[in-house]
Design a protein that fits this description.
Elements: H1 8-29, H2 40-59, E1 65-71, E2 75-80, E3 89-90, E4 95-96, H3 97-103, H4 126-132, E5 134-143, E6 146-153, E7 156-157, E8 162-166, E9 171-178, H5 191-204, E10 209-214, E11 222-226, H6 231-243, E12 253-258, E13 264-272, E14 279-284, E15 287-288, H7 294-313, H8 326-330, E16 333-341, E17 346-347, E18 353-354, H9 357-377, H10 379-413, E19 433-438, H11 440-449, E20 455-460, H12 472-475, H13 481-488, E21 505-509, H14 514-530, H15 532-536, E22 540-543, E23 548-552, E24 555-559, H16 562-571, E25 578-581, H17 590-598, E26 605-607, H18 613-623, H19 629-641, E27 643-645
Parallel strand pairs: 1-10, 14-16, 19-20, 19-21, 21-22
Antiparallel strand pairs: 1-2, 2-9, 3-4, 5-6, 5-9, 6-7, 6-8, 10-11, 12-13, 13-16, 14-15, 17-18, 22-26, 23-24, 23-25, 26-27
Helix pairs in contact: 1-4, 2-4, 2-5, 3-4, 5-6, 7-9, 11-17, 14-19
The structure holds ligand 1YM.
Protein name: DNA gyrase subunit B
Keywords: ATP-binding, Cytoplasm, DNA-binding, Isomerase, Magnesium, Metal-binding, Nucleotide-binding, Topoisomerase
Subcellular location: Cytoplasm
Length: about 650
């Protein structure tokens, strides 16, 4: 078909295009309603949407290889070896099906065979949304010996579907350039972000081969490929290797089932480690359900029940013993739950929670039958798991006693707030901040420099606890951490209550050296382990003190990076200035500290964000080893994930 050749189909095409464009204009007007954001998250989301369609084709059994290439100019090219998106005319619109897929919202999965969509956050509207938000997008379909091609710009078709050269392959290729008018912050893809997500998808879809390559720098192409025949069992192995933990039993347990009506499946892979924390990742239709939902609840209920039934049956728990709690039986557990279902209902604002009640029943039944049978058939593994759970129960009891002791003591002393806390006047967490500062001298400057209306200062002293290697009961006795707990006012562990938080922003202020990075990491680990919602809800910040002061005449300039220092030196004309390198916060007087690090009008802060539970947990676990270097790397990496906040 030539470009200017007018066919019956293309006449209809013009008419239909009007309605089509209205749909996609809506996407461009309010991208936030269709993708996570127009920041880096949303940018990467575009790739996932296209890849999801290829994964659906793999799940349907027609495709076993997916290539994702990042090309120069941050163009992304996704290719699969499936059947190819249908090119036949779709009767309602008179347009080729592939054109409809890319130009009509809510088109995906509605036709072309009636199969249901399994993957994808947008349930099939993905391709058109990606198209709407791309400066241009090209699709090639390889089907029955012919290559079909169509090009779009910002959602508008700029060619019809054309036949191009002959081919002996089959499949679909989508090439697109995200629109910088939409993604104003950046259109640069992060290799690691894509790598993590594609690896995860390869784990969740056993046997699919996904290859990622970065060809932006032709001199230095980077490549990684993922194919896991072990599926989510391989995922658990991978995570536990990364977590650097000891295994309680050698094999990953794997259980799967399908619902009687054939509408859904459930899979669980799990393994106990000697860690004190659980790591649960759940997925529904390959979407990470960050807020859990029915599948997680069904799992937890069944696990606690099966463990207690077994412990009673074999007299591991005596008549007078209390039942094991859910936290006890999940301590140290790494578990992946993956369900696939026809009509997934997602709840909660972020759509990260599965709502289908039948999935609770399905997973509950799966664990109730198969995990119970596993324990019966593997007594040695069962023994090891119960030793772990009983130890957790004892520690929980010790923590309860320690907590009561602390409470009683504070009632007696009638001093709930720590003595070294310089509190602020306001009681409104919407405006209050607490600076947690290592060392008394920096604490002194901070107290002198702060705005006491809304800024509180808590200097830290004493010996820090390695929280990674300690359970809750140890925290209660720690002289360094308890003042933090009492100052924040929201409790820890099971008792944590975000509504009691006394300060909206918790700002860790430490030197830009190795010791400072140590204290930052320890505090971040502490918050992550025992006050996780603080991290998840974005209450934790890292202060960014300047590294240099450059003085010329009586004017001071502050530089926060080496690059900035060089730029300022250049601007000052290369001479007649004096550079001071700050070794620590203590070298700044109160006024300088306010001006550079604490004044909300001028300061730079990093907000700590947890992108991905597995990655964060890995980071925290790896970090708390004895090596300093990986810690520093973490801080730097974390700072990249964190967003700038003034
Ligand atoms: C690089 C992206 O989109 N592959 C892909 C998409 C489809 C099919 C095959 C497909 C699906 C069906 C039948 C079906 C899609 N088709 C549609 C629709 N790769 C990529 N590969 N034949 C081919 O679902 O029955 C939407 S996506 F709607 F046109 F069928």
């Amino acid at each position: 078909m030539e470009l200017n050749e007018i066919t019956q189909a293309s006449q209809n095409y013009d008419e239909n295009q009007i309605q089509v464009l209205e749909g996609l204009e809506a996407v461009r007007k309010r991208p936030g309603m269709y993708i996570a954001s127009t920041g880096p998250k949303g940018l990467h989301h575009l790739v996932y949407e296209i890849v999801d369609n290829a994964i659906d084709e793999a799940l349907a059994g027609f495709c076993d290889r997916i290539d994702v290439e990042i090309l120069p100019g941050d163009i992304v090219c996704v290719t699969d070896n499936g059947r190819g998106i249908p090119v036949g005319i779709e009767h309602k619109t008179g347009l080729p099906a592939v054109t409809v897929v890319f130009t009509i919202l809510h088109a995906g999965g509605k036709f072309g065979g009636g199969g249901y969509k399994v993957s994808g956050g947008l349930h099939g509207v993905g391709a058109s949304v990606v198209n709407a938000l791309s400066e241009w997008l090209e699709v090639e379909v390889y089907h029955e010996g012919t290559t079909y091609y169509q090009k779009f710009e910002r959602g508008h078709a700029v060619t019809e579907l054309m036949e191009k050269c002959a081919t002996d392959r089959t499949g679909t290729r989508v090439r697109f350039k995200p629109d910088p008018e939409i993604f104003r912050e950046s259109t640069v893809f992060d290799f690691e972000t894509l790598q993590t997500r594609l690896r995860e998808q390869a784990f969740l879809n056993a046997g699919v081969n996904i290859c990622l390559s970065d060809k932006r720098n032709p001199a230095e192409p980077v490549e990684d490929s993922f194919c896991y025949h072990g599926g989510i069992s391989s995922f658990v192995e991978y995570i536990n290797k990364k977590r650097a933990v000891e295994l309680i039993h050698p094999d990953v347990m794997y259980f799967s089932c399908a619902a009687a009506d054939g509408n859904s499946t459930a899979e669980v892979a799990m393994q106990y480690t000697d860690s004190y924390t659980e790591l649960m990742l759940s997925f529904a239709n390959n979407i990470h359900t960050t807020d859990g939902g029915t599948h997680e609840e069904g799992f937890k209920r069944a696990l606690t029940r099966v463990m207690n039934d077994y412990a009673r049956k074999y007299n591991i728990l005596k008549d007078n013993d209390k039942n094991l709690s859910g936290d006890d039986v999940r301590e140290g557990l790494t578990v992946i739950i993956s369900v696939k279902l026809k009509d997934a209902q997602f709840e909660s604002q972020t759509k990260g929670r599965l709502g289908n009640t039948e999935m609770g029943t399905l997973v509950n039944g799966l664990i109730g039958d198969k995990f119970a049978a596993y324990l019966e058939e593997n007594p040695a593994t069962a023994r090891a798991i119960f030793d772990k759970a009983l130890a957790a129960a004892r520690a929980r009891e010790a923590a309860r006693k320690a907590r009561e002791l602390v409470r009683r003591k504070s009632v007696l002393e009638n001093a709930a707030l720590p003595g070294k806390l310089a509190d602020c006047q306001s009681r409104d967490p919407e405006e209050t901040e607490i600076y947690i500062v290592e060392g008394d001298s920096a604490g002194g400057s901070a107290k002198g420099g702060r705005d006491r209306k809304f800024q509180a200062i808590l200097p830290l002293w004493g010996k820090m606890l390695n929280v990674e290697k300690a359970r809750l009961d140890k925290v209660y006795g720690n002289e360094k951490l308890m003042p933090v707990v009492t100052a924040l006012g929201c409790g820890i562990g099971d008792e944590f209550d975000l509504s009691k938080l006394r300060y909206g922003k918790i700002i860790i202020m430490a030197d830009a050296d190795v010791d400072g990075s140590h204290i930052r990491t320890l505090l971040l680990t502490f918050f992550f382990r025992f006050m996780k919602p603080l991290v998840e809800e974005g209450h934790i910040y890292l202060a960014q003190p300047p590294l240099f002061r450059i003085t010329k005449g009586n004017k001071h300039h502050y530089a926060y990076t080496d690059g900035e220092r060089d730029r300022i030196m250049e601007e000052l004309g290369g001479q007649g200035y004096e550079i001071q390198r700050y070794k620590g916060l203590g070298e700044m007087d109160a006024e300088q500290l306010w001006e550079t690090t604490m004044n909300p009008e001028t300061r730079i802060m990093l907000r700590v964000e947890v992108e991905d539970a597995a990655a964060a947990d890995e980071a925290f676990t790896v970090l708390m080893g004895d090596k300093v270097e990986p810690r520093r790397e973490f801080i730097e990496k974390n700072a990249r994930y964190a967003e700038l906040d003034v």
